[in-house]
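User: quick one, sequence for these tokens?
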């Protein structure tokens, strides 16, 4: 059967070849160049998308978080723009468990009394256990000076001699939060406090984190300085956490161009924001760049050699659930047909630092081909007179693709170190966006998208 099918296919190919040679045909469409596409993507159009998402947040309790009416309205807006440009869209529905705390309090009762504020001085980790605890704090293998390289809590032996019934104070770094908590609970800890690592500017303040599964005891994060203070022998803390876990159903949105599906270039941005604010830089900025690239692809009649899939992910802020669902439902053939993934997350920071994914991690956990994405983006920005930095973070949707062995890259303009003082806050609004930088990042993304779409 295989030989017969091949013979038939060869005959068909010969007939087609004869027809093509013997009958006049219209000339193939002229390729669209990067300049045409970039000229079509204006800062005014990008700003219009941001303003629309801002209005959505303003009329839906101030946010666009997954599982809310604000997110649903954001999805409707993007879908309408894509369909208006001529795309057929597909929604991918998924469900997941979202932990939340309904109340949390923390105070020090010894050696002196002090009260602390949730979300400023401490915050429960996702999937923290519930309960009330008043106990002495026991520091576990902390590294509070020098380079602060630490395996605090990563090994069961760290808890040798640990006084049962106390609160374990462990330091961020080296292994997962869940691993530290598992060892602490096995040693008899009634609660766990995780202080930031303190080895660089971005690891001094309060941080968010997840355990990935429900813990048996309350678990909270705190700043490096407060953790250092609480490591003093004799410190007693009073900690209470009330938590819930809800099932959230959300959707991602995808739209395809023409082109070879066995060489698919996926370009994406997460559409959801956090509950604390409208999420315009994080990540309305990435959404605007991807959406306007898609709109102008259609307007210019781009007919790419490789299929481009424009994707708008749900529930990134809760744990990359939309992109993880997308990758998980790919069969082996579809996974192998995905040439690369290009991610845009926070590309209009108020005090931006233009950055490209890559740097030291390339070659270590970054599949083959990721370097090509980094090179195309870096070369374009350099040609525009901007020397980009590199970022190696994996806490956005590109991690879903990297974990599946798919080449990935992306653009970022900063969250910490003052790049975005409104990161995950109510002031992350359209008015704070650096429109010039957003325009440059959108141009870089469009150039890379077109380059990979038209590369045989």
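Assistant:
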């Amino acid at each position: 059967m295989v030989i017969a099918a091949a013979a038939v296919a060869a005959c068909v190919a010969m007939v087609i070849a004869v027809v093509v040679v013997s009958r006049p045909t219209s000339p193939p469409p002229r390729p669209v160049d990067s300049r045409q596409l970039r000229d079509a993507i204006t800062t005014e159009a990008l700003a219009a998308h941001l303003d629309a998402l801002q209005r959505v947040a303003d009329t839906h309790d101030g946010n666009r978080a997954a599982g809310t009416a604000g997110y649903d309205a954001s999805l409707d807006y993007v879908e309408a723009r894509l369909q208006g440009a001529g795309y057929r869209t597909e929604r991918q529905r998924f469900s997941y468990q979202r932990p939340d705390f309904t109340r949390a309090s923390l105070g020090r009762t010894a050696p002196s009394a002090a009260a602390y504020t949730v979300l400023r001085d401490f915050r429960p980790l996702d999937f923290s256990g519930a309960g009330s605890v008043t106990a002495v704090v026991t520091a576990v293998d902390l590294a509070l000076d020098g380079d602060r390289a630490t395996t605090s809590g990563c090994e069961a032996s760290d808890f040798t001699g640990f006084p049962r019934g106390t609160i374990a104070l462990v330091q961020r770094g080296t292994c997962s939060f869940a691993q530290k908590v598992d060892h602490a609970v096995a040693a008899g800890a009634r609660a766990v406090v995780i202080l930031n690592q303190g080895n660089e500017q971005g690891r001094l303040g309060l941080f968010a984190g997840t355990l990935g599964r429900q813990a048996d005891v309350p678990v909270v994060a705190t700043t490096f300085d407060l953790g250092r203070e609480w490591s003093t022998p004799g410190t007693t803390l009073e900690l209470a956490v009330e938590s819930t876990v809800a099932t959230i159903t959300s959707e991602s949105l995808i739209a395809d161009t023409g082109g070879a599906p066995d060489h698919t270039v996926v370009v994406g941005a997460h559409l959801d924001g956090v509950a604390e604010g409208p999420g315009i830089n994080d990540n309305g900025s990435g959404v605007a760049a991807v959406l306007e690239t898609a709109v102008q692809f259609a307007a210019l009649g781009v007919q790419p050699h490789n299929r481009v899939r424009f994707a708008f992910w749900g529930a990134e802020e809760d744990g990359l659930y939309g992109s993880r669902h997308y990758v998980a439902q790919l069969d082996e053939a579809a996974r192998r047909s995905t040439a690369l993934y290009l991610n845009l997350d926070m590309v209009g920071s108020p005090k931006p630092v233009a950055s490209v994914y890559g740097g030291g991690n390339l070659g270590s956990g970054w599949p083959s081909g990721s370097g090509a994405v980094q090179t195309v983006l870096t070369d374009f920005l350099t040609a525009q007179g901007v020397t980009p930095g590199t970022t190696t973070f994996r806490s956005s949707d590109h991690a879903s693709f990297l974990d599946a062995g798919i080449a990935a890259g992306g653009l970022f303009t900063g969250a910490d170190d003052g790049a975005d003082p409104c990161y995950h806050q109510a002031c992350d609004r359209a008015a704070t966006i650096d429109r010039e930088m957003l325009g440059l990042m959108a141009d870089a993304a469009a150039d890379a998208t077109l380059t990979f779409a038209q590369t045989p």
